[in-house]
Amino acid sequence: MSSNNLDTLYRQVIMDHYKNPRNKGIIEDGNLTINMNNPTCGDRIQLTMNVEDGIVSESKFEGEGCSISMSSASMMTQAIKGKKIEDALKLAEIFSDMMLGKDYDEEDLDLGDIEALQGVAKFPARIKCATLAWKAMEKGLKDESGK
After folding, report:
1. In whole angstroms, what is the distance from residue 113 CA to residue 13 CA?
2. Which of 73, 81, 10, 79 lies closest to 49, judged by CA?
3. What's the CA gap between 131 and 12, in Å, rounded?
């Protein structure tokens, strides 16, 4: 597939998550709630999660922001459901590396829709948009695992 076609496909995936977000809402009885914002652009997120026996059983988000931040939140909440805390944190580390343009082992890990965000690395001003939800998740899970 040509680079131009791949970029178009990735844009379509991002816009699909933005227009049809997965896991949008609040978990009323969630045992973790994290609020974060990006003051430079106004993106904000409230992430709620249920973590039981070291596993993220449920994850939802509310917020407002650009298509990059909201689609990234949608993708992230899908990706971490059912994962052990350490696996979700490892995924966040890999995502962060991807945002910095670093390579990751595609053989070991299928990022699915998340891979559509790799082009954000070319736009340093947008990296904070893409990582906002991931930073919220990391903060919540690190606090939870440190208890």
Report:
1. 7
2. 81
3. 19
Tokens 């988000």 belong to 61
Q: How far apart are CA 78 and CA 114, in angstroms?
A: 10
Confidence bin at 3 (pLDDT 50/70/90): low
Q: What are the structural domain ranges in the chain? A: 3-145
Residue 57, CA distances (Å) to 28, 77, 78, 98, 108 in order: 14, 11, 11, 25, 23
pTM of the shown model: 0.92
Integer CA distances (angstroms), 23 to 18, 77, 127, in order: 12, 7, 22
pLDDT over 90, % of the chain: 75
Paired sense of beta strands 32-38 and 55-64, if any? unpaired
How far apart (Å, rounded) are the C-alpha atoms in residues 133 and 146?
Answer: 20
d(CA 44, CA 35): 8
- What CATH class has 3-145? alpha beta
Q: What is the pLDDT of residues 4-38, one digit of tens each?
A: 776 888 889 999 999 999 999 999 998 999 999 99
